[in-house]
Amino acid sequence: MSMYRxxxxxxxxxxxxxxxxxxxxxxxxxxxxxxxxxxxxxxxxTAQDAIKKEKWADCVAALQxxxxxxxxPPYDVFAVAELLGFCAARNGDTAGAEAAFSKGLEAGFLDDxxxxxxxxxxxxxxxxLKAYERAAGFGEQAIAAGNTEEPVxxxxxxxxxxxxxxxxxxxxxxKWLAALQSRGEKPAEIALQLYVSSCSKLDxxxxxxxxxxxxxxxxxxxxxxxNITLVLLRNASEGNTLNVFRYAxxxxxxxxxxxxxxxxxxxxxxxxxxxxxxxxEAGVAANVFNTPALTDLSKRLLSSAKxxxxxxxxTLAKQDSDAAARKNGEIDVRIGQAYLSYGDYAxxxxxxxxxxxxxxxxxxxxxxxxxxxxxxxxxxxxGAKEAFAAVQGDQTLKDxxxxxxxxxx
Length: 409
Fold this sequence. Notes:
By secondary structure, the protein is mostly helical. It is built from 23 helices and no strands.
């Protein structure tokens, strides 16, 4: 993934109040607190005159000359640093501005509101200086002090990323996303791209899937469903491969012709030729069987699925009736899956629910997934959410349940 390039943003809101000319500072100090001493008054006045004429280098030189003054009172240090930071920034000296503003912060005279602004300024300045550790530190302080602005969080996350500290990047973004969610706000797309990239750098599939889910929820990209499918297949047991493909088929995550043929073969093995037929026909329509081997295999699967559908579908009502008379619910669930594969969603729901009520279902979690899909396709989104929420235990099925739940929105 390429390095992200954030737009520069201005952190100087309220700058006039913080970096007021010395006369203003003196007037305020007379009414409210300390003022500069005579030891630096001349240099400050010279700097103030230079500011009026926009002679920034002269301003910097006048203020730097105060370094020769020994034992300056703390407020002198603060006032000079504040003014010096302003002039250095205007003079294009980012490092000088950062050093001066840091000294002004450390002096302890800024109130809460201006200290919050200062954290933002120092975040930006250190980011521009590529001092990413300091930048991230000031970003964290700004957020801890109550800042909720997106650019602050973005630059903080990117600072960690540029340090190649992907663990701290993902940890920070996790907290940020949780805070956004608590406020009902939506994350920026670049934040989720940064999240996905950091998880990938860590080679952490749990992290990758979590990040991709957030991307899918808020800023889906064309490749997101396919990337989710890849992660799921990497970690799924053989018994859950078909369930992963079912999600991928619905969400647009089938990446290759081999995905279609493998899903069709698994469907046939499960006794679901209707599902196999739908998958192969979709693959043909998408023109994914683009090698002689895939073309040949798809034709054989298509022929087999059609033959099995012709034999199975006419008998489904009789199979349903026979299953209803049995005490074990496993057969009902299988009949419900068949109805689902043929697009009869109402019958799929009622038959699967009947099987669950009887008991004896072999894979309760997979059955809840299937019921959720059937309810979703039947238009019952709340019922689908309820079924997906009942999935417990198996990690791949829990992952799939969350992903299917996103499709109920």
